[in-house]
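<given_protein>
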Amino acid sequence: MENIALIESFSEFKDDKLIDRVTLMAILEDVFRNALKKKYGSDDNFDIIINPDKGDMEIWRNRVVVADGEVEDENSEISLSEARKIEPDFEVGEDVSEEVKLIDLGRRAILALRQNLISKIHEHDSTNLYKQFKDLIGEIYTAEVHHVRPRVVILVDDDGNEIVLPKEKQIPSDFFRKGDNVRGIIENVELKGNKPQIIMSRTSEKFLEKLFEQEIPEIFDGLIMIKKVVRIPGEKAKVAVDSYDDRIDPVGACVGMKGSRIHGIVRELGNENIDVINYTSNNQLFITRALSPAKVSSIKIDEEKKRAEVFLKLEEVSKAIGRGGHNIKLAGLLTGYELDVIREGNVAEEEDDVELTEFSDEIDAWVIDEFAKIGLDTARSVLKHTIEDLVRRTDLEEETVQDVMKILKSEFEA
């Protein structure tokens, strides 16, 4: 009865941890074998019989009968006189099976058994959790903000599992409060000791791809495929799409009437600007589309070096480069080519033009860098724009832009 009672007390863990009875019994056998090894040095000559339906178990120790005074290993051998106390008709050479009661292991051993069982169950939980979330890598998952730390947000799902959203995996504009629901993809599952750490990401290209799958029925149904996604989280993204059916406009289907379909995705990503582009295997055409909204005059491709010279009219250069250089950077990542912008314009003016860096003694370097970010690196390229336009497209104050314009104009007037 002691065995049954102890097994039943151990089985309380089954309900708390939602472990099926068979798994619990397997864990129990492992725990008891460890206890037997500690007490007797080996568990090889023990039989552990577990009945998962009744929650009952028996431990039997098997030993060989040897003549009195010839016992060399007390765990595997028993003297004839001791064997006959169990059954009076035992003879030398016969096998003796004797039941071991848990109480025989000692109170301290039973307490150790319980601690070992708890440890094994936690290990089992961790293994199952690791496998569960390993299968969810790359999938969208929703969890609630439990608490916010400077470098990480801790989330908890409906099952009480803890999920980590590091700062570098958050969109720059993300701001979370306790109780907020957060969506992202499960990016990785790492084992920290025996405990799995589940990492969520909102900056991954895969997150944007999965949002498209959720929001665009034609992508979910496989009528439209996403060929490639590149993004600068919270700023800009480019998504190349293609259709299996010539009757379906993949870009129109993704964007929807007046942007209705893509609006929810943009909002989820903190108003990230998303360009949806028709994929083509024609590299020249693909580069042209990738540099939208700029209008490309011509392209010269070097396939060996994976570089392309893109010829643009002067007024299209800043559009191609984009704010902070984002547009041309993403176009390069999307197409797989290093893109060099070549300006087309009035030859006389270009010969007369002056690089902005030549004015470094009058204009601060960081101001020159701000103009360069929007594709303006010569005096005439800056002077072609209005002050209002330059203030809007850079992080410069109006007064600073006015000063720069005055310096540049004086160069040509002189």
About this structure: Residues 347-413 form one domain. Residues 1-5 have pLDDT under 50 and may be disordered. The radius of gyration is 36 Å.
